[in-house]
Amino acid sequence: MTIALDRPVPDRPVPDPMREDPSGALATTAAAERVSWSKPAKWLWVAATDTDYLGMVDRNLDGFCATGFDGFDLGVFAARSDAQAAVSRYWSERG
């Protein structure tokens, strides 16, 4: 399974997905890179664009562990979506 997302627009706050987005931070531009999440193994999700490796999320007994493109440990999250958001955010800010 592959899930495609757009790269966050820089210089705008990342909105809370539970609220409406008055800032337009979720709007995409023509220059936005597409982020794809693939699932190469059970309990492993890998994020990439056409040109970059973004990071990964793996499931263990503690929760969903997020790792950045440079191997930096981004933390353990209760929800997979939160871990995936951390990977995308880290790449957007540092990549």
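^ that was protein a. below is b, sequence first then the tokens
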Amino acid sequence: MYCPYCRNPDSRVVDSRLADDGSAIRRRRQCPHCGRRFSTVETTSLSVVKRSGASEPFSRSKIINGVRKACQGRPVTEDDLALLAQEVEENIRASGVAEIDAHEVGLAILEPLRRLDQIAYLRFASVYRGFESLEDFEEAIDALRRQNEDAGRVPTGAQRPLTAR
């Protein structure tokens, strides 16, 4: 690690701490040449392989932006979206792979989004899974109903009475 002040190619680690909920390590370093201190952050690299074959670094912000569209008009906050993106990243990192297909990232989004908001889940799934007919929606809604019955809970949005528009 080059010192950012004097470009000396050596540095000494003074302190190490976990950062970003344990997914990174923040290190305080000191240059033995000029004596100045600086911080570095170490993370494992995670790449997403696109359909075109191109590879790019994993980005939580891309997940948030993609899911935000499905959540428009829904009672979902920016904090909810940030937590969803964090959960998706943690699940992907827990799989132990350094490269993941973009399609797999989409699959990793579906379950946390279903738990967050079922309407947003249907919107996202309809685009992601390429729903082509009403039957596709009906199958997805039936699956949600079965999951709700198995869990013994009321679906998101069902607490509010329907109103005429």
